[in-house]
Design brief:
With 64 residues, the protein is mainly alpha-helical. The chain contains three helices and no strands. The radius of gyration is 14 Å and the shape is elongated.
């Protein structure tokens, strides 16, 4: 969960070079529903079905 002061320009200096995926991640990780879903997924056994449902709901994909 982010705990950075959003009013501090220095705290977000890294975003000046951010691409679309970086900005999408910054947006998503601040979403309260996403945070709650992530907590629920983290608390239970990470079955492939639960993880798949989580990825589909939030539109996540990971490169390998």
């Amino acid at each position: 969960m982010p705990n950075t002061d959003w009013r501090s320009e220095e705290a977000y200096s890294g975003l000046k070079k951010a691409d679309a995926a970086d900005l999408a991640w910054e947006w998503l990780r601040r979403d309260r529903d996403y945070q709650e879903d992530y907590k629920r997924l983290s608390r239970r056994e990470r079955s492939s079905a639960a993880a798949g449902e989580f990825r589909r709901k939030w539109g996540l994909s990971f490169s390998c």
